[in-house]
Design a protein that fits this description.
Blueprint (H helix, E strand, L loop, with lengths): L2 H12 L5 E4 L3 E8 L7 H6 L1 E7 L5 E7 L21 E5 L9 H18 L5 E11 L1 H11 L2 H4 L10 E5 L7 H6 L25 E6 L8 H14 L5 E6 L8 H21 L11
Parallel strand pairs: 4-5, 4-6, 6-7, 7-8, 8-9
Antiparallel strand pairs: 1-2, 2-3, 3-5
């Protein structure tokens, strides 16, 4: 089946009646895919959409599913330019916001979007075994929650541990600020419960690359949260979790250099996959 026919079928199946398809010689971009289909809820139908940019002429490529930041209360879906045209697909995901919905609903949207990618990326030429999840700040929190608390993806028939890797950029490791706000807890009062990635530390997760800005420049104690997350993975014997602190970069400016680390990480892992060798060993805490 030609890819143009595949795209048309996907859009009809997901209810993305206003999707737009763009193409250059090497990449095709499809926008406004309704990954939940038509739900009957106008807010969900408008917010739960994604854009996909994927390479032409090759198959079996990796895919990065990207979740934007904004405190789970704002922001817009994006496909970072630094990640495009790199021999892999990039998926930019939109999701509903707190307080209009609860934080658990934001996480469920993220899981539904990833499930869509699992169901359809092979039809676009990609490999379901090479799906990497990444995001910044609130988006990093979503990545960590659906990758560590397997119940969210299980609702959609996806095994969380099948994810190629989790790459959270400066995300909350404790319970998210928006989740604390739902309960009247100030942002300076830490909380670790089932809404915290730290609560779900276990030895058998997907590989993880944790990225943080400079500990002296990050918002609140974001580096320390992530350093403790990394440390607890070591304690439980998780063999493939790395952490990188980007010296001199704050919460916002760490994103662009973070993209360079993501690209190197994926290329190293995919090269190791092709040769059957072991990926580079995780580094010690930095």
């Amino acid at each position: 089946m030609k890819q143009g026919v595949i795209i048309a079928a996907l859009l009809l199946a997901t209810g993305a009646t206003h999707a737009q398809t763009l193409q250059n010689d090497a990449y095709k971009t499809v926008r406004e895919i309704a990954y939940r289909g038509t739900t009957g809820d106008p807010y969900a139908d408008s917010a739960c959409r994604m854009d996909v940019s994927y390479p032409q002429g090759i198959t079996g490529y990796p895919t990065v599913v990207w979740f934007h930041g904004g405190g789970l209360t704002s922001g817009r879906r994006e496909m970072p330019l630094a990640l495009r045209n790199q021999g892999m697909a990039v998926v930019g995901v939109g999701y509903r916001f707190s307080p209009r919905v609860r934080v658990a609903d934001c996480i469920d949207d993220a899981a539904a979007a990833v499930a869509w990618v699992y169901r359809h990326i092979a039809e676009l030429g990609g490999s379901p075994s090479k799906i990497y999840l990444a995001g910044h700040s609130a988006g990093a929190y979503l990545v960590s929650m659906i990758g560590l608390d397997s119940q969210y993806l299980a609702r959609y028939g996806v095994v969380a541990d099948s994810i190629a890797a989790l790459i959270p950029y400066s995300g909350n490791a404790i319970t998210h600020l928006a989740s604390r706000a739902e309960r009247g807890i100030p942002p300076t009062q830490p909380l670790i419960d089932s809404m915290a990635p730290l609560y779900h530390v276990r030895p058998d997760t997907p590989p993880i690359l944790i990225l943080s800005g400079d500990r002296t420049l990050e918002m609140y104690g974001r580096y320390e949260e992530n350093a403790y997350l990394w440390r607890m993975f070591q304690v439980v014997g998780n063999p493939d979790v790395q952490i990188r602190e980007l010296d001199g970069f704050d919460h916002g400016t760490m994103v662009d250099p973070g993209h360079l680390l993501l690209l190197r990480y994926i290329r190293e892992r995919e090269a190791a996959r092709q040769t059957g060798s072991t990926p580079p060993p995780p580094a010690t805490e930095q």
